[in-house]
Every structure is written in C-alpha cells, then in structure tokens.
Amino acid sequence: MASAAAVDTMPDALRQSRYHMKRCFARLTGMGRRLMKFEHIKDEIEQTIEDKIERSKVLEGSLGDILSSTQEAAVVPPYVAFAIRHSPGIWDYVKVHADSLSVDIITSTDYLKFKETLFDEDWAKDENALEIDFGAFNVGIPSLALPSSIGDGLGYVSKFMTSMITKGTESAKPLVEYLLTLDHHGEKHMINETLNTVGKLQAALLIADVFVSALPKDTPYQNFEQTLKEWGFEKGWGESAERVRQTMRILSEILQAPDPTNMEAFFSRLPAIYKIVIFSVHGYFGQADVLGLPDTGGQVVYILDQVKALEEELLLRIKQQGLNVKPQILVVTRLIPDAQGNKCNQEMEPIANTTHSHILRVPFNTEKGVLGPWVSRFDIYPYLERFSQDATAKILELMEGKPDLIIGNYTDGNLVASLVASKLGVALGTIAHALEKTKYEDSDVKWKELDPKYHFSCQFTADMIAMNAADFIITSTYQEIAGSKNRPGQYESHVAFTMPGLYRVVSGIMCLIQSSILLPLGLISPSTSHSRRSRNDSPNFNLPLRNYSSARRKTTSTCKSTDSNSDSPSSVVMRTVLSKLYITEENWCFLNSGFLADRKKPIIFTMARLDIVKNITGLTEWYGKNKRLRNLVNLVIVGGFFDPSKSKDREEMAEIKKMHSLIERYQLKGQIRWIAAQTDRYRNSELYRCIADTKGAFVQPALYEAFGLTVIEAMNCGLPTFATNQGGPAEIIVDGVSGFHIDPNNGDESSNKIADFFEMRRGY
C-alpha cells in the first residue's frame, strides 16, 4: 500500500522507467476515453512490458506501490487521472500527461470532472453544476489520526470529552448543564438546581460519598433518598448504596482527573434513554410468514433480535438506576393493506418475548387514498415524506411525547428517521445494512442508465442526507465502513463521487471524522438458536477443517432417523423439510423445482433473495460448468418463486427466468433442488440441520454482502461455510480455519475451491 509521500516520488519513478512508461501511457491513451479499474491497468502494463524481469524492475518501489493502490483511472487523452487509496479513508488524486509524463496532484473535484467528461462532457464543463461539500461542516471538528481507529466511535467520543474536561474546572460546566437536563415526565434525575456549578457538585459528591459509604451496601435507595435530595441529588444514581457510591465516585474522578474509561462508564449509567423508535419501512415487516417475500430478509430478523436485546438492556439499566420507569420501543414500518396472509395489514402488533415493544404500521397515504399493494424498496421514495409526517403524529400519540432515541434502518428507514429526528430534536442513529452504491459497479456515473429501474438518484441522495444527519452510525463490520486493503468500504465509497448531470459530491462522508460505532459480532439468529441448531454439542465459529467430519459424528440423531410416526412439533417440521428437500422425480416438472436423483451425495446449499447482488444464478452457473463439483455434490437453492409471473419485483423476475435458463443449458435435472423462498424461520433452521447431516456445506456467493446473517446461521449449525470475500463475511470467516472465502468474480476458482474441499473430505 502506497503512502501519501509516495505520490511525491511518482515523477522520478516515471522518469526512471521512461521508455516503458511512455509506451504504457501511449497504450492507455491510444484507446481513447475510458474508465479503468486496477485490473485493467495491470493487464495493460503486462501487455506493454512482456519481459517479466523488466516488468518486475519497473513495478518495484514507489511506482509499483502507487499503481497497486490505484482504485481506478479516468483516461481523457492526453491525460490519465488516477484515484489512489493509500489506506482506508486516505486518498490522493494525480494526473499524468501521456507524452511528457509530467505529474500533477489534483483535487477530488478535478478528478471527478475527469470522470464526468467520459459520460457527460458538457455538464463536466458547466460552472453552475451542483457541487456538494459536506466537509465544510466538519471544519473545527477533530478527526481520528489513524485509519485503525475507524469504527471505534464510542471510544473516540469518550477520549474527546475527556480532553475537553482536562482544560480546567470550568471546562466541566457543560457536563453539569447536561446532568441538569435529565428528567422523565417532569421528574428530575441525577441533580437539581442546587448543584448548578462544578464546585458545588464536587463538594456535594465528597459529602455524599462519606455518607453512602457508611451504609450497608445493599441498602435500598429509597431509605436514604431524602437525605441525598437535601444535598441536591435526585433519583438515578443507583438502586442500592453500593451502586450509588460507585456512580458518584466515577463522577468525582472525572471531575478531578478525567479519563476515557471512567467517562464511558459514567455515561453508560445515566438515566437518559427510555423510549426508542426504530424505523424499517420497506418490505413486509412481521414476525411470521414474511421471510423470503420481496425485500424481506435478514433486516427483519436483525431488528426483531435488536428490539429484544434493547428492551432487556433498558430494563436492566432502569433497575440498576433505581427508577420505576417503563421503557417503550416502537418499530415503525409500513402498513400494507394487501398483505399476503400475514399481519402486515394490522396497525399494532406486540413483539413476541417482550413486554414493552410493539410494531407500529403506518400506511402510505396518497392523494387517492391509502396505497394497497407492496412497493419495491427502489420505488418507495415518493411516499416517504408524507409517511414521516404521519408516523411522527402517531409516535407522539402512542408515546405521549417525544422519544429519546430514533434509529433508522436501510436507506428509506434512515431518511425517514432523519426527517423525524430533525423535526422532534431527538438523537439519531442510522444502520445502513447495505448501501446500494457499492453493490452495482459504477452505479454513480451510470446513474442515468440505471435510474429507471433502481432510482439511484433518490437512493444515493437519501443515503448522503441520512449519514450526515446522524449523531452516530452503527455498523457490524470494519469492512462496511472502510473496506479492506484493496477495496473501499461501503461508507468510504461516499467520500467523493459524481452523478453526471445531477450533482458532484466532493466531500460526502469522512471516515476519519464520522467514525461509526462498530458492534462486536455476537448475533445469532433465533432461527438457529441453541435449542434448534444442528446437532453439534455447541456452535463453533473456529472449527478446524479436519474436524468437520468428527463434528458431524457427534450428532445425537440425523434427519434419516427422525421418527416418521412422531407427531411432536420438531418431527412435523422435520418431515416437512424432508419432503421439500427430497421430492421425487414423478412429482417434478420444469416450472416446479427440480429433484435430487442421487440422495447419497452431500449437498451444497444457499439461501437468499433472488437478486443480482446475491448472485444465486452465479452459483448455479459455477455448478453447471464444473463437472468435478457436479460429480461430488448436489445443489440446493432456497429463494424466490419458480414462476416469474408470481413475483412483483423486476429484478427477481429476471433472475427467475435466468435460473430456468441455466438449469436447461447445463442440464441440471436430477442434480439441483430449487425450493421457493421460505417464510417459516423454524423450518429454515431444520433445513440447515438436514444439509449438515448430509455432510454438505453452505455457500454464500454474493457480489457484495455488508454483513451476512445466513453465514452466521450456517456456521452456528456446524455447516462448513464458503462465503464471499467482498464485505462482512471476510471478517466473520478466517479463511481456511473457520470457513472459506470465495471470490464471486471468479467462478472457476470458487467452484474448484468447493470441489477441492469435498474431495478432501472423502478421505476422512
């Protein structure tokens, strides 16, 4: 990876290899205007300098570093403009004259204009073109110094606050002012106006510490509440004398000698959050019979799990704070009158296994009345402003006031959340789940071509608004923020980009300023919880390759040994899964779902929506082309419909037709089983188990995956897992240790890697 200083050495490096570089740049510019990726540049260099030794000499040192760090190049003869990524969040832009090999460092604006010239030259030259610079709002805001700190937003905030308080006693005044604002329905918490200065608070803390320390540790707060109140303290310090003493000492230490650890600990104890609103607008948001429906998948599972965890945490904190407050969580989504046999047409629905959490569904109101049918997430934008207004009114009514925190999910939910949070003056957190810009290559510069289908002009704009309006951003992996060594992250791709004819973003989001809260990986879907996971003793995310077979031998029962006469719920579910998995040839037809002729073969299995990015058709084609893999395993696909006319999603319809075409082209009859998208989460968990018991494996071939919930589910069931190296799974899996990375852009390599694994397993 090149350093920023390496760019300064580029002129000398070019001159040292002048002969080869002249030929190379002549070749680059000789083919006219074009946008080139690193792979294209590498190919051109290899074709220009055929001698391997000479090529190695040229690419050694700073020139090689710079070229290997180049993400793309815009060729506008006689210039080639390079976008060079030294490390996550740190970019340089240079232009090289093909004839003279002169090098000029240029701004992000200049580079974007080079790109625009390739797609809309008139607009690129337009002095009145709309240019967006969110970086202007960051002036004066301290930023992280190291890319390695990206993702530690919470830690950074604690350090920053600590640095502000170390400037003297009066520098802690904002902290005192904040404590004075804490209340619930008019009841003061923590301190009252008696302690309205730093000095008064410090003195009172010393007196209270002596008093509370003399009490038995388990003394209830109510027993000494009145004494503390006379000194200026209110409820919220703790439920017992010991908890109160701990909290007061943490604050005393902060006021005397602040440090980030105490700062974070103190704020985690403050009674500030009771009411939370979570927005998830698109798709069918429900607790049953929705998974696999259009635009409905892992996000629903993630949020329902999140709500349960949030409520548990709120109840615990409220108890520890010594308060008698009932928390409230609302998941706000769209009410769909034309629901498909589920509860998405009901306004209110309690969330299972919670006491204070509900789903609130608000319809899309239009001039013609309530919109009835499902709407694709790509077509949803005209309804969101009115939806945010209607949702706000309903939230205020149900919560009897403003929430304390609003969290958005995905582009539409994040945009609505930002509108509502701005209107109510409430803290805002956003969760992207998947920023579409990174899923479709060059989707920014090619937006006009893609807009009729995806409306990226709306989506990218909404993403920019929401991520810059957010008080904090939650991500699941570092990859999501800043990518890997060779690939920018989802958020990082919004640093600078252009949509020719619409607007140019010269500073969209700064990874070293708008640092996310990176959540540790600890999510296990209820669909594969401990009681229903594959028959291993326990989940193992670091299962050595040689132990996969022995892990399977630890099973206490198998699919085959399930009592076919039992009427227990688990047996009924198992029989249903087996009937879906092993359909007979007599019941098969072309527009049905295929069958497995050789049931003794292991199964490779995938489950996802049928869209381009999930790359299910890609996996099917890899399988179809690889005779060795076909001889070793069967293929099971779970997703979509069989009949394209049953789908309402344009992209899914196209992928369904492609699936049928691939099955015919590669004559996969008898080797593939295509099961329609399953809405029963418990049945899905049994499916994982059955595949595991065939000594099969799970494959997640997505072109890009922000997180990878199915990867976690499969690993939790003990399934050997092959997952895309593009996105979150690259962090979840340690290649060759806890699973395998596969390159979705290299089907031959990926399919051979899977075949190698199954050939190896034959020896165990």
TrEMBL record:
Residues 262-510 form the Sucrose synthase first GT-B domain. GO terms for molecular function: sucrose synthase activity. Its EC number is 2.4.1.13. It is an enzyme of class 2 (transferase). Residues 153-239 form the Sucrose synthase EPBD domain. GO terms for biological process: sucrose metabolic process. Sucrose-cleaving enzyme that provides UDP-glucose and fructose for various metabolic pathways. This is Sucrose synthase. It comes from Sesamum radiatum. The lineage of its organism: Eukaryota, Viridiplantae, Streptophyta, Embryophyta, Tracheophyta.
